Amino acid sequence: MAADVPPVRRLLIATPHAWHLPHPVNEHVADLADGLLALREAGIDAPLPVVIAPLAVASARRAARSALRDLARGASSEEVLAAPELHAPAAGDRQAADAAHDWPLVALPQPVGPASVGLRAALRVLLTSADVDLVHVHDPLHNDLVRFVTRTWAGLTVATFHGTPVTAGAGVPPVRERVVDGIDRWLVGSAGARATLDALLGERGVPAHLVPTSAVATRIQGGGTGPVLVVGRADGDDAVVRDLVRDLAPLLEERPELSVTILARWGTHHRVPVPRALRGRIQSIEAPTREQADAVLAGAGAFLALPGAHPRGLEEARAARVPIVVVDDGDDVARDPAALRARIGDALGASVGELAVDLPDAAALATAHIAEYAAVRDRIHVHIAPPAASAKNCVIDLHMHTSHSWDCATDPAALLHVAREVGLTAVAVTDHNEISGALACAELAEEYGIQVIVGEEVMTAQGEVIGLFLNERIEPGLTWHETIERIHAQDGLVYVPHPFDRLHTIPDVNLLRDTLDEIDAFETYNARLPFDQYNRDAERFARKYNLVEGAGSDAHVVQGLGTAAVHMPAWDDKESFLVALGQGEILKRPKSLLYLQGLKWVNDLTGRSKKLPPEAVGRER
What we know:
By secondary structure, the protein is α/β, with parallel strands linked by helices. The chain has helices at 24-41, 58-72, 77-81, 117-129, 144-152, 173-181, 191-201, 238-254, 290-297, 311-319, 337-348, 362-377, 412-421, 436-448, 480-489, 509-514, 532-544, 574-581, 593-606, and strands at 10-14, 48-54, 105-108, 134-138, 156-161, 185-188, 208-210, 228-232, 259-264, 282-286, 300-305, 324-326, 393-400, 426-432, 451-460, 463-468, 493-496, 521-526, 549-552, 564-569, 585-588.
């Protein structure tokens, strides 16, 4: 299916972390973008990276605003984004005076709370004018910049969760739910990040695929031979480092040639008080860029990773061929200073040649990610090119109910009469967990001159799904997969109604993605939904995966018939129906939802609608 999908033209990579401040996620983004360009230079098909990130440097922000204005005025994205003034500085470079990379960085303001109107407008311009085929967001729940990109972008979205704590706004369930639903593939760099993501999302867990998050191939020589013990700091570890200085004092007394460098790679830390006797032998250094870290590691004889240290720091030490001592919270040496000193002493005597260094370079990192991009693009449906449209037209409402539904009082004959009066030429009758009403309509179809598709809206264990062109009733309560199998066993079509109506029981978005190949059509407009955002979410999902779109009134009273329909070529059987539906145009003729729902409530109160069946309790529509 993916063979006919064109290769990615441009990849937009979004990071929520300020580019001018040290952060391991931004270094990962830089590695990935460098690797993509390296693959392209080697003649390998790879997307062109464009990175967006908050940046406080005024000159970079001015260059970004100028580029966005040019894009909005219709300038070529190839020319605009190739401008040298957009070339990215090194991640963590507070001055950002010089370009360090050959790919563009679009500098954006740092959102404080909700993204401003100006920031949202800038992102819309970039997403619609830069020939973007795929978006890769990092830490998508972190702030409103990446959350807005995820909610707004209508195409495929890959997200990497690095385990970075989210801001308070992302904890609001509706915000988190819409962001999560907009992500087509989740990536994590470690089992720990996966566990954190599962804990964050709770019941709405998502499949997460393990990929590398660092590309720190060996770039320096001399590591592992110096007389320096480098200590990698973690966030909020001031008390731990103070205790460490005390515990290392005997080792420094025994080995006068040894010194200790306490390395802060990301973030600012307090300097640790050093006893008078050890002054000059213990120093604290901040190394916000990889080049500065390389200079420190070049003279290291061992690297000590404290609890909570970022994994990237360990990988940089491995790449520099420095022996590593890892201290975990549950490790015995964390409570035994003598054992810790002994382990450090062993590491300082280790041979560089004995170290196993097997880390990806930037090209290998990019290759791993291209495989993930291809996996998500494989889900896009590729339809057979339709024949020329028929000269005859069909106007069909794909979702409605009769008195054979427990919550509807519409007589089949009245339904067909009103359908003809409002201009419909075909209907799909989709009663709740029943096809007797559809069969009754089919018997009257010729009399009223209306094509009737026999359907059923089945309540599965994971949400509702409609079967079209059915011959037999499908019992409710089966799993989503079992119900789809029953529909296809009758040679029917699977039509997913109101898939994002979050006020009712609907299939999880991951379940929809897992069964994309089983879905024949997707309802992107339902006239009964109280919030149009639900329809827009369905439309976005369908167009992302190139699903055939449909529309239905979901009418429970005759006054609602035809409030949603599809204008499409005429058809004779289910195969020609599906081809014709793929050429259709959705018609929206909404009426007051309060009026239609009021009529339904009157039927319920007067007893014209029937008693709630057991399988529908708690799922009233």
